[in-house]
Model the fold of this input.
Amino acid sequence: MASPPTSEPVIELRGVEKHYQMGDTLVKALQGVDLKIFPGDYISILGPSGCGKSTMLNILGCLDQPSVGQYLLDGLDVSKLSDDDLSQVRGKKLGFIFQSYNLIQQLTVVENIEVPLYYQGVSEKESREIAVELATRVGLGKRLDHRPTELSGGQQQRVAIARALSNNPSVILADEATGNLDSKSGGDILEIFDRLNAEGKTLILITHDEAMSQRTSRTIRLKDGEIASDRRREEKVP
Amino acid sequence: MIQHSLLREFSLFRLKRSVLLGIKSLWMHKLRSLLTAMGIVFGVCSVIAMLAIGEGASHEAQQQIKELGSQNVILRSVKATDATTAGEQERSLILEYGLTYRDIAQIQATVPGVLVTIPAREVKDFIWNESRSIDSSTLGTVPWFPEMRNRSVVRGRFFTEIEMNTRAPVCILSKSLARHLFPLSEPIGDTVRIQSSYFRVIGVIADDPATASAESEDKNGRADPNQGAGMEMLIPISTLEDHFGEVLFKYRSGSFEAEKVELHEVTVRIDEPESVMPASQAIRHLLERNHKKVDYEMIVPLDLLRRAERTKQIFNIVLGSIAAISLLVGGIGIMNIMLATVTERTREIGIRRALGAKKKDIVVQFLIETVMLSGAGGVIGVALGLAIPLVITHFAEMVTIIEFWAPALAFSISVITGVLFGIYPAFRAAGMNPVEALRHE
Ligand SMILES: Nc1ncnc2c1ncn2[C@@H]1O[C@H](COP(=O)(O)OP(=O)(O)OP(=O)(O)O)[C@@H](O)[C@H]1O
Ligand SMILES: [Mg+2]
Done:
């Protein structure tokens, strides 16, 4: 996107660290992370295994809280929120996409897409309309009442994307979203991501895949829990 | 604030969807859910069935006692079982024992609250109608006997005071006796014979509930096999004295027995239910003073009734314990399965937490599932528990009574069991760390 620094950041990390106590040693999974993410950013986070990508995503996704530092989401300091308020923030402002799809097995496609809306207290009728619309948008309009076990991996991941979009989140977080997929289905998923970003969505993708970073407008490289580089590709075609 | 969030949490809309969700999750493992609910099914069903049977049995017992008259005290002459009596008896050859007119007079005069007394003498001998006969009991009594003993005259009439005073040779047959002696013809107006005395039948009376209940004993061969159950003839007491005298001779198992008994039975009617116990106490003291040996027995139906009620209470306590244990076992079964389910669905819990579910949403979800399991078990249990007594009544001809509150109680207990045993698994599910739950395989 053209000039992100002019607007207010949607996410701001200030001196964030995450420590794990492993017996006698203190593992610093993240240290001194300062980061600003602006609305409309399309970010890939890269780095070798164990560098702290998932840890960072958990913190960004309000699933975990930093040991040190501040995390501002839409200007709200979420590093000190209660468990209930964190749930509320996740349900309202964030969308998750996981490597292993993480659909609920006993629910159908539409019902899976409706889950975040259910916890936001959206009425049955309204959430059904939203879910059907999103399912159609990810190309599953004819599979509304299928169960996850009756779908291919790519289809399941598309359901997961629809689910992540259902509450109209400020930021979408994806951890190795294409990791379990063949290149064709993975490509389909990435195309959906491109389209979402083009529509103005903020996306943060975690990946091993260097090729994936070519599609995004901003690439953050992590090394040993620190940000090694943070590059914006100005030349990216909108 | 809290009220608002509670309202939101338990709004009908969320409840309905949570229930639907619970059904889906339980339906995923149909057999497991069914087996888990079984514990509750059997608990609930046995509670209702046992209550119905117990209630029926105690109702029947209480009914019989009530028919004896709860305001009555019944005294009966019995042969004293004392060893010394045997020696005296051999010397005198005539066995003299039992209640006397003197006892009655004193009871009437000294015991407070006595309304009337009903004396009765009994002769046990064959009663004949032409060639048909049966060994039966003939009771000499007073005109107010049926009213005081709750025995209804089903056909004809009872004898009157005039007939008693004139020592008229009239008789009333018990239903069983009438049926036995007059299987085909109308007994009223006909005559029956005992030894050489003839009596005109003027009425038929309902069988004595006390002897009717002894019927089963007869079938087991414990009572005198020659004596027909419920076979009884009633005549005026004066008539009986006229015809059979003071000493009764009986031919029994090859030898004669002679007995002198003034009164075989006395029913004392007390005016108020509250005075029955003190009056019976007074009568007991009076009889203890008058009789050296215990040649009488005392039946206080009210006392029996109270004892029957106490027995029923004990039965209910035992039943309650069995019910509690079986529901405890059922509850533990449910808890066990729910804990396994929570572990199995760790990933789902993580997903839901990531998608905005609060801890209490997870608690509610698992609690609803547990309650539905136990509630479904409760419903099936109630249905079975209502059916079993019907089957028992139909095939075993036992009275069973289902109190309206029994199924309601059993069902609510099953639901409460679900809540109690569901709380721990539900909180365990909610307490999971979302990150770790998501990583769970
Ligand atoms: N719950 C935990 N307890 C202790 N240490 C942890 C925990 N979670 C992560 N770590 C450590 O933190 C570091 C970063 O882990 P993280 O999972 O973020 O790596 P990653 O970049 O996602 O790796 P990968 O690409 O393999 O998924 C690792 O050294 C890991 O061992
Ligand atoms: Mg990782």
